[in-house]
Design a protein that fits this description.
Elements (H helix, E strand, L loop, with lengths): L1 H28 L3 E2 H4 E3 L5 E10 L12 H13 L16 E9 L8 E8 L10 E8 L5 E8 L5 E5 L2 E5 L4 E10 L12 E6 L4 H15 L4 E3 L4 E5 L4 H13 L1 E2 L7 E5 L4 E4 L4 E2 L2 E5 L2 E12 L11 E12 L3 E5 L5 H10 L4 H14 L2 E2 L1 E4 L1
Parallel strand pairs: 15-23
Antiparallel strand pairs: 1-14, 2-11, 3-4, 3-6, 4-5, 5-10, 6-7, 7-10, 8-9, 11-13, 12-13, 15-16, 17-22, 18-21, 19-20
Length: 378
């Protein structure tokens, strides 16, 4: 009897392990999105910074002073601040200096002493910023106040060489970055909670997503913690105690939400000919006819010379142009009703259409009402 009970216990334990494994697999397949991937807290945002500065130490690849007078003016002003007086009217032919614009992003909750990455871009006619050093450059916000100071050696990802009138270049040489090249001097006050109420702003405008976020928050914290103001804004009632808000918002960010199916959408880039669809795109039964029309233009030079030598005539050269149009017969293809993206791709590939043909086909399907998706052309 003890052996049977032990065997039954082992079987039940094995079945429990299998069930747990299957549950883990199913939960992994139906993985939900976190709120931090779907929305952001209102008031928690970055701020753009910009500044004007000089890059020195270039190997003769800086600005040409005659064509960029502001570089010479900036250099003269900088030297005067350092106690060096340059006589007026002096034409400085300094090829190792370049005028640049410096940009950076000041993140939320940034405090004085923290460092930022900066991007340095040439604004004159410098050939390369490789090997240059950015001098102390104040970075200002939209209100004109200085929030950071940038300085350091540039890292330029491009490379180039020239000799004998020939040149070769890989990537961009007139821009670079300085990792941790700016030091924050002033922080921006960040207000994200009023009486414990925080506002979630969804990345996209969708009532289904907003309702799913509200449902997940109310199930986790208890109703009525969250309410949807519209298809993008969700108001969340958090603790009024500031010391407990960080923990509460951390739970909100990492809470997983089961989203409804995304809205069917087809995005067409007319410049590159690329077509992107999501998995909810479907097409109804339709018939498509398409064909290629090619125009061939050939031009030949016809030379007309005098009949006899030394006749005193002139040689006349005229162009003979021929235009030929070729049209391939369009094939009428029947496209059956599809249920998912794989069927859509399979149906369109069966037509043998190129990406450029797909642009016209999808537009015509949308006009005919057979494409069950929003068509966006960028």
């Amino acid at each position: 009897m003890g052996v049977k009970q032990t065997t039954l216990f082992r079987v039940n334990r094995l079945l429990g392990l299998v069930a747990g494994l299957l549950l883990a697999v199913v939960s992994h397949v139906t993985h939900a999105d976190r709120i931090k991937d779907l929305a952001s807290f209102q008031g928690v945002r970055d701020n753009q910074l910009v500044g004007y500065g000089l890059v020195v130490g270039l190997d003769g690849t800086g600005d040409q002073v005659r064509q960029t007078p502001f570089t010479q003016q900036s250099l003269t002003n900088m030297l005067s601040q350092l106690g060096v007086t340059v006589p007026q009217g002096t034409n400085m032919q300094v090829r190792n200096v370049a005028a640049v614009m410096v940009t950076a992003r000041l993140p939320a909750f940034a405090q004085p002493g923290q460092t930022l990455d900066v991007v340095v871009s040439s604004m004159g006619n410098a050939k390369s910023l490789r090997g240059g050093t950015l001098l102390m450059t104040p970075l200002k916000g939209a209100n004109g106040q200085v929030y950071a100071i940038a300085q350091g050696n540039l890292l330029v990802g491009g490379a180039g060489a020239q000799a004998g009138g020939s040149s070769v270049q890989v990537n961009q040489l007139n821009g670079g970055i300085i990792s941790n090249g700016a030091i924050v001097e002033r922080g921006v006050p960040t207000t994200y909670s009023r009486d414990g109420v925080v506002v979630l702003e969804l990345n996209s405008n969708d009532f289904g997503t907003a309702q799913a976020v509200v449902t997940a928050l109310n199930q986790h914290f208890g109703a009525p913690v969250a309410t949807a103001q519209d298809g993008r804004v969700v108001r969340v009632q958090g603790p009024a105690d500031p010391t407990m808000q960080a923990r509460f918002l951390s739970e909100v960010e990492n809470l997983e939400v089961n989203l409804p199916p995304a809205r069917a959408r087809v995005v067409i880039n007319a410049r590159t000919g690329s077509v992107v669809m999501n998995r909810t795109v479907t097409i109804d039964e339709a018939a498509i006819a398409y064909g290629n029309l090619s125009v061939v233009i050939s031009r030949d030079a016809v030379v007309s010379q005098p009949d006899t030598p030394f006749a005193g005539g002139e040689t006349v050269v005229t162009d003979s142009t021929q235009i030929e149009m070729r049209s391939e017969g369009g094939a009428l293809q029947r496209v059956t009703t599809s249920a998912n993206l794989a069927d859509v791709v399979r149906a369109l590939n069966a037509l043998g259409a190129t990406p450029q043909d797909l642009l016209s086909i999808l537009q015509n399907l949308k006009s005919a009402g057979a494409l069950r998706a929003d068509l966006e052309i960028i």
